[in-house]
Design goal:
With 124 residues, the protein is of the alpha+beta class. The protein is 26% helix and 22% strand. It contains two helices and five strands. A five-stranded antiparallel β-sheet has the order 1-2-3-4-5. Helix 1 packs parallel to helix 2. The termini are far apart. The model has no long low-confidence stretch (mean pLDDT 83).
Length: 124
Amino acid sequence: MRSVTERDGRGLMGIVTPFPLGREPGQVGFERVELNRILDLYGRMVAAGHWKDYAMELGKDAAVFAAFRRTAERPEFRIEKRPALRARQGMWALIGEQGMVLKRGQELGPVLAPIERRLMKLVD
């Protein structure tokens, strides 16, 4: 293996670190399709004048999307993805402002359904 300071004919060579096989990923994140679905809902709630801000936390155990009515308060809803619960209650959870689990499931769509219904009431 070459060091960072070795040169070849074109410039500096870098060190290639192999991807560790068999290890759990260090961070849970949203896949592109999941994030698109969540941000689509967020955009519609912003357009309806209900949500003003959001935050995302990508941690070791869970990925959390929090939606706020105002920036300086607790989130109205948190959408959590916990892959460790995939075989039990389901890895998706919708958590309300008071911290109570409102909906839990294996798929994202049904977990977002209570917010979708609320959006329909806001638009009408």
